[in-house]
Amino acid sequence: MDRDAVASHVPRLRRYARALVGDRYQADDLVQDTLERALNKLHLWRPGSDMRAWLFAIMHNVFVNEIRSRRLDADALSDDESIAAPAGSVDRLEIRDLQAALGELPAEQRAVVLLVGLEEMSYAEAAKALGVPIGTVMSRLARGRERLRHLMAGAPAASGLKVVK
Amino acid sequence: MSGTASETDLHAYVDGALDEAHRREVEAHLAANPVDAERVRAWQDQKARMRALFNPVLEETVPDRLRAVAAPRRRIPYALAAGALVAGIAIGWAAKTYLATDPKAVPTASLPKRAAVAHVVYSPEVRHPVEVGADQQEHLVNWLSKRVGQPLKAPILATVGFELVGGRLLPGDAGPVAQFMYQDARGQRLTLYVSRSTANRDTAFRFSQEDRVSVFYWVDGKLGYALSSELPKDRLLAVATAVYQQLNP
Q: Which residues, other chains included, contact B4 with Cβ-Cβ below 8 Å and sequence gap of 6+?
């Protein structure tokens, strides 16, 4: 039962990992390590509590450990085809800009920007997933978004952008 | 920070985390502060681009290796996947040579030859062996039946040790062709190539050795079948027999 619940979160874990790591296969490695650890610790998960927060917290720990042990190149944002442009919705160049800009952020800022912007976590949820106070989430979010803004200044405006749901 | 709204307020506005009253205050602030309004617009734009860029990941088929973790009974060890890759490279070279030495053979090639080429091209694929995975078997069979124009079945080959990986649609001489791919516990793959037959008469089992690919093929009604693999001939015959029996109960 819980195992199925874990499986139901896999697409979102993959989306976040892809955005965080950039490279498709490194991202799936991160998801796989996260799932293995989560399933080993499944008995520690309290039924009724927020499984998404629990899984993202595990992923964050795995990510941090892997950066430390240099198994993962945190700055690797893939320059290959690993992320295809959604057909007809966004200009490929704009996508490259965002992808490249994300890669320029320190990993801790990138994590917050993505948890809030992509995963749509509340600040409190993001704080819990990252194991830091809310104030830290806010300051990383502010710095990350400003840095992205400067990096992307000069990129064509995305007005009329169709968001792929 | 400028004016009456704090930096935190501006972000909370972008993230929809403000109540109605607070939101209106921030909007009033933005109306009077074009610099902040521009920053907020840029952050909103970042979020929209982020979703446009990464939401398609949600629609991707989850790779087998991740599905296998969540459902460990179907787990395929890494070493085998790596082995399949190495074998794949070797077969890929074989296919290249094969295609290069006989370029005219392909368009007009016989059923076993076409099936063998398709087998050699797709069975080594580690990442994208199929277009539609076995987890969507009903969709797969309906889709391929529709495109091939005949009701198809994906035989269940568990009794001979093979599980369905999925299938794909290929171009053939007489229209679309379906390819079903199976894999055993050791990662050995076989493909069942199903095309519309123009021969219009049934045939018995026939065997053809296409380079290192063994092919059993037959015509049954309106469909021609070819089962291809690098398996030893006798083992492939056992599988072919199982396929035939299931298609002709």
A: B25, B29
Q: A23 CA to chain B: closest CA distance, Å?
A: 12
The domain limits of chain A are 1-76, 87-158
Query: What residue ranges of chain B are covered by domains with CATH 3.30.200.100?
Result: 83-247
The CATH number assigned to the domain with range A1-76 reads 1.10.1740.10
CB contact under 8 A, B69 and A35: yes
Q: What is the DSSP letter of B231?
A: S
**Closest CB to B55 among A39, A102, A164:** A164
Domain B83-247 top-level CATH class: alpha beta
ipTM > 0.85 (yes/no): no
Q: In this predicted model, which residue has the larger pLDDT, A155 or B45?
A: B45
Is B53's CB within 8 Å of A95's CB?
yes
Q: Which of A114, A157, A105 is nearest to B42 (CA)?
A: A157
Per residue in A103-134, pLDDT tens? 889 999 999 999 999 999 999 999 999 999 99
Residues of chain A with pLDDT under 50: 74-93, 156-165
